[in-house]
Amino acid sequence: MAQVVFSTWGGITVDNRNVSGEPKAVSYRLPVAFDGERPLRAFMGWDGIILFSNDVDVPAMTAEYMKRVQTLYCCGKCTPGKKGTKVLMDLFQNVLDGTAAEADLDAVEDLAELLKNCKCTLCQSATIPVFDAVKHYRDDFIAYLTNNGHPRVQPASYIHKITAPCMDKCPSHIDIPKYIEAIKNYQFDLSLETIRENMPLAAVCGRVCPHPCETACRRKNVDEAVSIMLLKRTASDYERTHNVKPPMVPKVRKSKSIGIVGAGPAGLAAAYYLALEGYPCTIYETLPEGYGGGMVAVGIPAYRMPRPILQRDIDIIQSVGVEIVYNCRVGSDITLPELKKKHDAVFIAPGAHSSKPMGVDGEDNGYKGFLSGGIYFLRDAYLGKPTGMGKKVVVVGGGNTAIDCVRVALREGAEMSCLVYRRSRNEMPADVWEVDGADEEGVKFEFQVLPTKIIANEQNEITGVECVRMALGEPDASGRRRPEPMPGSEFVIECDTVIPAIGQDMDLSFIPHDMGIDITKWNTVVTKYLPLKDSAGKDLKDGMGNPLSRTLMTDCDGVFAGGDAEIGPLTVVACVGNAHRAANVIQRYLEEGKTYLSDQDIFDDLLSYLGVYDKNESVSWLDSAARAHQVEIHGKERAAKGNYNEVELGFSDSKAQKEADRCLRCYRMAMVAL
Amino acid sequence: MVSLTIDGKVIQVPKGTTILTAAAELGIKIPTLCWLKKVSTTGACRVCVVKVEGVERLMTACNTPVKDGITVITTSPEIESVRKKTLELMLVNHPLDCPVCDAAGECNLQDTCYELKVDKNSYNAGLERLPIRYDWKLLESDPNRCILCEKCVKVCREVVGREAIETVDRGECAIIDTINREPLDCDFCGNCVGVCPTGTLISKPFKFKGRPWTFDVRESICAFCSSGCQIGYHVKDNRVERVTSSDDGFNKGNLCINGRFGYSAFNSSERLKSPLIKNGSGSLNKAAWDQALEVAAAGFKKIVAESGGSAIAGIASPRVTNEENYLFQKFMRGAIGSNSIDSEARLGYLPAQEIQWKMLGYSGGTFSMDMIEKATAIIVIGSDLKAESPGFAYRVIQAVTKNDAKLLLAGSRATSMDKFSNASLRCRPGSESWLVAGLNKALLASDNGKTAQVTGFDALKSSLDALSFETIFTQTGITETSFTDAAALICTGGKTAVIYGAEIIRSVDAQNAVAGTIDLALLTGATSESGAGIYPLDEKNNTQGMLDMGCCPEYLPGYRIFEHAAAAFSSAWNTNIPTAAGKNLFQIIEGIEKGEIRSLYVMGSDPLNFIPNRSRVLKALQKLELLVVQDLFLTDTAKLAHVVLPAATGAEKSGSFTSVDNRVQCFAAAVKPVAEARTDADILSRLYSMVSKNGASVIESTEALQHEITTLSGLYSESCNHTGCKMGRVKNRTETSVSLPLTPIVPATTSRRFALTVGATQHHNGSMTTWSENNMTVDGEAYIAISNEDAAVINVVSGDIIAITSDSGSISIKAKLSGTLQAGAIFIPAHFTDSSTTALMTSPSFPVYVSIEKA
Predict the structure, then answer these.
(1) For the domain bounded by A356-503, which CATH number is listed?
(2) Which of A372, A634, B253, B767 has its CA at 20 to 30 Å from residue B806's CA atom?
């Protein structure tokens, strides 16, 4: 077990430097070795310092930390930050050079106090570990001044990472403070350029992203989160509404090509980043032309994601050198081995386009009016095909797909659209605003209700669904109290259509068994990962239970996988982040013949595991600027038959500019010593 | 309203107000170095920190909005200490070159350190000196003096819309520089210099011209474009050495290159310093004033005696004051007895304003131009705004960025405003009337256009019904969809503004183009009380005032017609003025050719370089028995004169200018006329008494003259309606709303396939600034802009000479490749008289069809 020698992390001092007995046991959400190999000797960041090794040269590390903050990240746009970090940087250099005086060290505390007045968090937070270092390792600093050197320590190599709570939480790691600052400065073009560095589907993720970033917005600790997602939409809409040609220019065309399965968010994102590097990319898409976008297209209704706006993002991706072959199902129109032969690398991103069964009596009887899955229903509606829907629709499920189904049912002309969910409204996995939206449109809700049987007449037409009311029992493994049927509470909801929308699944049947590509028991593709372990020797996992740091190459050389099929059904933003990494690894594979993660990739994973946002942090700020709200179309008419017009209208530019001004720009730098 | 307490005083302010502004309202001054009212907040200097009770950290007053019920403390030992320490940090490595720093004496950093008694520095760091940018034109940047307040960056981006400079690099090396770190290439408006709180960004021409406190600052009105900006001339030893503008004024301190740097034309060594008389051998020799005036007066009198007043014509000036233009026409009508008075406004502005008058009841802008900032939709047609009238460009930028106004740009050329536009209708040169018709048609087809209640609406509608989008597409190259999309943008039901410029006013089918533009204003409600107005543009400062003063053959001052008003003028002037309309510009040339006109009096104007058909005009001018020219410089026309009278600049005289948006602004003289030069008013009143039959003196005093203008014109009131100005304009509008039907003309076909437009560019104003060393440093020679495609076809690269031939003549000029001109369109800046573009023109309208080849 790796021992913590010293730590001030989180404001709690742990000092095991000179203990005679049992050292104080403490652990942090960090791996014992940075990349599974190189031991982590120290960690330095916004919340203090952590030393895992006794031989770290703390003054040298402190000087290096301050030098990197000042010369690489300090924006210079406020006096204390610009000048204060310069004074500190030079002071520590003077210590290392032996030219400083002991009294100079007293300025560190004074500056740490003064830098609380910085404009943003970067330089301010940088004073925290530096101050801790001087305070607790003062003798080491003084030793430099007296011994003319510091012999008893091992030199270290340092790796740093700039982050922010929102940026860390965003699976695509978009530089959120930068794009928001650009909007504050009326630089909508720079804002979009910044977004595109990590997110090519800006119009999409400006509209339908569940925005995990906003759950990690430090402004929340003052009042409410900054409307990060809508600001992304603003940047993207600005380019579109000003008829600006996107400025990206791909690098010189290279000869090695990449074949990609699926034109969903992951396939498109990987293709975009590889195409910008000059690699010809061909995406093979099952759906016909005009329906690119994967689940964003056929799974998200047009009133949330207008087709022309989605198509514009796709067109832009194509314009940098991506070819999309529509109506081409990999597995039947072309096989995966053929694809592998044709291209120098293959990226599998087929998504999760299958629906999970409900397990309800009558489900398999082939009743007219029983639609086999919510996502099929959404897809048929989107493609303008007959959906098989009648007039009275019951949708079973509590996620966003279920909500999309009840709202689309109204727009497809349903007289009654009812959602049946076995838990309470508060427990729905669907986003709150989506549930509220459905409510406003007149959707009926039956909460804490479990369908037990589908009832049909002699013509095999559905006439209703039998349900039973649920009561809460004991908490289950997830900590939620398990709903249990209440005997005798059975009742029937009259309907002619039942749509199960309880979960998505992957169809990986196109992957031949003999290719050596492993599939997990959750039906996701297995990819290679770093052996990161915590101090207790446990493997580090991400939020989906996957290994934390994955290179995204399958066990078949040259075949990579990403998106829902690799992660498990998740979000557009997660798929894009995952595919962006895959693109980087594919590039390394094509150029160096090696698949590896860069130090920055690994650091991203480490920070997500550690967590950058602290919901308990007390953020001192005057809460005098409330979160802005976008204009929305209200009233039932918005869900009238055939009305797929966009419901949410975004911000005006000036409102966006004001909202952007609420951002606290919570940058901070982490550094490890290896 | 939000209520809060600052330093124990309670105040109520609107929601969203910052603590800084709220405190200012209470008379509490919080020190700040980066706050600038006209741009978004920055929060860079951190000097304005204050304590808000209940909030642990100090908050910056400049960018923290107030909250109901808060208690703010603006001074305390803690706050003072933080402010002082912050300033100490700011001074770490700040150069101590105050003795030679341009900002010394007007440096905010000096003042703030002094105020806060920062007399020591507890901090130090290794000294790093950054290179000074000596290689920029007009501006110099010493990043070592920079406190990174970002005012310059913000003004450049948010006010000027240029984004030429940015904060680049990191940490201590973070400086203001061009984004690619190449030499500055921008509007050169110098607004960044204007807002710089230190000596970082300075004006090169002003460097070492004197310490700021040794100058007198004389308030005045800019004498270049028609925006009418309020300026301050910095004067020492009777020379203007700098021009600044106060942020508290109408134009919020924002100027353009001409306003800020064009003054060097006034100081040009080429200024006429004494009168000149042509001697027997045809050369111009220096003469005494009495002698020159005597030659001119005697000549005029002789011709009047022999052929009557109608044998003398006059050309007035859009550059001189209202009072001087009034005196000019009074001299021509009252002393000479001729109504043949005209000006360069004949080429476009005057005919356009006659149409506007007929349709709306007034000429010029509906409101003062600041109304544009409140617009929610703006249509700019046929104008390169920054070239013609930058003040309008700045207003449009405010509207689109701060008020979310939708911007529609329509015209044949791309302009620097394109990046702000939501729709851009790019027509073929010469199809402007079709463009406007198409837009009207699309507007009527949309739901919102039909509500307009205007006289003549049915005729307009049926005229548009008669046009098909197919025909319009054939002429303009713009599709129905583009028109419809554009119409949808401006049909938002809000406040619309319409701005039209030279491409409309001097279009081949100006009648339909102008009428159609005004129709658009009527249909969108722009001219109504709830609209944001219509604004015609003109490149020069007092074109509107010159016309108001009756400097045209068909109207007396105030657009009064001879039939109604001649008697009143005759009686007031104690003379008999002619009662029939005089000759216009073209008729004057014809009259000279026919021998009906024997003498021409030209004031502040260079007709050889603006009347089409240069060789014909040259011959006519050479034929004159007496050509009297009064000007600042020896223009091409002046070179032909028998008598040349040196006149005074806008800085050297008092009076008033009327901008195109009908603001009448008075100003006093900042300096005395250079050398022997005299104001046009002085010259005119001397000549009046010498030539007038009754020998009367023309003015008793400025007040008397202004009273006379008020009484006789009925247009200008005597009372002032804004600061620093004695005159305010009576808006005696009839508020008619008459739409005119549109019947655009199909242009005649020509074998010459290049469409030439001659017009304004943004680094000059008229030909006046070609006498300004400052402007010439930035843009110093004539050129022809040609699209990359066309250049490839005729095999030229930038710098090659192109021969341009039209039906009336040919010229040769240096090529400059343009990435924005459409193929088949070429452009020559109007400013450089040595390009002699009038040689190519047979009419005042554009485009002129020409052939081009590599010379």
Answers:
(1) 3.50.50.60
(2) B767
Kindly report, residue by residue over A624-666, the tens digit of the pLDDT: 999 999 999 998 889 999 899 999 999 999 999 999 999 999 9
CA distance A56 to A50: 11
How far apart CA B16 and CA B68 sit, in angstroms, is 11
Residues carrying CATH 3.50.50.60, chain A: 258-353+506-596, 356-503
Q: State whether B584 and B563 are in the same domain.
A: yes
Provide the shortest C-alpha distance from residue A229 to chain B (in Å).
Answer: 20
For residue A539, give the DSSP letter.
B
In one-letter notation, the amino acid at residue A400 is N
Q: Which CATH architecture has domain A258-353+506-596?
A: 3-Layer(bba) Sandwich (3.50)
Asked if the model's pLDDT at residue B696 lies above 70, the reply is no
Residue with tokens 């106090």: A113
pLDDT score recorded for residue A1: 42
The torsion angles phi and psi of A466, rounded to 5 degrees, stand at: -85, 135
| Topology adopted by domain A167-247+613-660 | Fumarate Reductase Iron-sulfur Protein; Chain B, domain 2 (1.10.1060)
DSSP-assigned states of every residue in A84-118:
IHHHHHHHHHHHHHT-S-GGGGHHHHHHHHHGGG-
Chains A–B, number of C-beta pairs less than 8 Å apart: 150
- DSSP label at residue B784: E
CA–CA distances in Å: residue B449 to residues A143, A392, B358, B424: 82, 43, 22, 20
Pick the closest to residue A415 from A391, A439, A444, A441 (CA basis).
Answer: A391
Residues B469 and B403 grouped into a single domain: yes
Average pLDDT over residues B369-377: 96
* Exposure class string for B591-603: b at 16+ Cβ within 10 A, else e: bbeeebbbbbbbb
Q: Which pLDDT belongs to residue B493? A: 72
Two structure tokens written together for A460:
């095999």
Question: Judged by CB atoms within 8 Å, which residues 539-568 of B form the interface with A?
Answer: none
Same domain, B302 and B250: no
Q: Could you tell me the residue range of the domain that residue B14 belongs to?
A: 2-75
Helix, strand, coil tally for chain A in percent (to 5): 35, 20, 45
| Distinct helix (H) and strand (E) counts, chain A | 23, 21
Q: Compute CA distances A642 → A207, A301, A497, A646, B316, whole Å.
A: 21, 12, 19, 12, 66
Give residue B181's pLDDT band: very low, low, confident or very high (50, 70, 90): very high
Question: Residues, chain A, total?
Answer: 674
- The tokens for B112 are 């703030």
Q: Closest-CA residue in chain A for B4? A: A624
- Residues A107, A439: Cα–Cα separation, whole Å: 59
**Residues of chain A with C-beta less than 8 angstroms from the C-beta of B57:** 116-117, 620-621
Average pLDDT (B414-434) is 96
Whether residues B122 and B66 fall in one domain: no
For residues B135-158, average pLDDT? 97
ipTM: 0.94
Query: What mean pLDDT comes out for the span B589-601?
Result: 98
Going by C-alpha positions, the residue among A172, A79, A84 that lies closest to residue A126 is A84
DSSP label at residue B336: I
Task: Return the bridge partners of A42, or none.
Answer: A51, A673
- pTM summary value: 0.95
Tell me the C-alpha to C-alpha distance, in Å, between residue A56 and each of A60, A98, A226, B342: 9, 19, 39, 88
DSSP bridge pairs for B729: B716
CB nearest to B57's CB, from A78, A184, A620: A620
Residues B343, B345, B347, B351: what is their CA dihedral angle, to the nearest 10 degrees?
Answer: -120
Query: Contacts of residue A105 in chain B, CB cutoff 8 Å?
Result: none
Judge whether residue B432 has pLDDT over 90.
yes
CA B377 to mean position of chain CA atoms: 22
Do B621 and B764 lie in one domain? The reply is no
Which pair of structure tokens corresponds to residue A239?
């380019």
